[in-house]
Amino acid sequence: SEVDDLIGRPLKEVVRAAADSAPVPETTQAGVHTEHSRGAILLPNSTRLDVEWWSVATGDSAIPVALFVRDISGQLRAERALRAESADAENRNLRKSAFLATMSHEIRTPLAGMLGIVELLDGPELAEDQRENIRLLRQSADSLRGIVGDMLDLSRAEAGALELDPVVVDLRNL
């Protein structure tokens, strides 16, 4: 097999170190040195195989007495997919926050107009049932204004732009 063809060949012939990876030397016990790194093995058919390897040398020798290689191609593909999914989720979240902020402002403007009309309609010449209808309309609009405000606060919080107003609170009165 192609992997069998690699056995016995000098490491420098088959391994190309990853650009962002440098060997990490370690001393595990007296006179035994290990080195860990990631890179790519180019198989005889030019297929790239992502690997990490550990080499073990003894004494002052730079020549490894053992070399352990592990295929991490699948792991790296999974890491890339996870990063892409994370970026995609962040993008969707930003679009949702922008939509919430826009909708909150778009709803708030006509709602303020409706509340202004309610104030104009409310007067002493109204019959009791009309006054009750105005009261219900005002109550409903105030509830809707609270919901819209909560949506706007949520979009601000998600965008990191929520500002808190510090107030003194007497906990005994809560």
Could you list some keywords that capture this structure?
4 helices, 174 residues, 5 strands, 5-stranded antiparallel β-sheet
The gyration radius over C-alpha positions equals 34 Å
- Which overall shape is indicated by the principal axes computed on the Cα atoms? elongated
* Number of H- or I-type helical stretches: 4
What do the pLDDT scores average to? 80
Instruction: Please indicate the percent range of residues in DSSP E strands (runs of 2 or more).
Output: 15-25%
Classification by helices and strands: alpha+beta
- pLDDT under 50 segments (min length 5)? none
* Main sheet properties: 5 strands, antiparallel
What is the succession of H and E elements? HHEEEEEHH
Number of strands: 5
Q: Termini separation (Å)?
A: 76 Å
Please estimate the helix content: 40-55%
Characterization of this structure:
- Helix content is 51%, strand content 21%.
- With 174 residues, it is α+β, with helices and mostly antiparallel strands.
- Strands 1, 2, 3, 4 and 5 form a 5-stranded antiparallel β-sheet that branches.
- A hairpin with a 5-residue loop joins strand 3 and strand 4.
- The radius of gyration is 34 Å and the shape is elongated.
Summary, kept brief:
The chain is of the alpha+beta class and 174 residues long. It is 51% helix and 21% strand. The radius of gyration is 34 Å and the shape is elongated.
Q: Secondary-structure blueprint of this entry?
A:
Layout: H1 2-6, H2 11-14, E1 15-17, E2 24-29, E3 32-42, E4 48-58, E5 66-71, H3 73-121, H4 128-158
Antiparallel strand pairs: 1-3, 2-3, 3-4, 4-5
Helix pairs in contact: 3-4
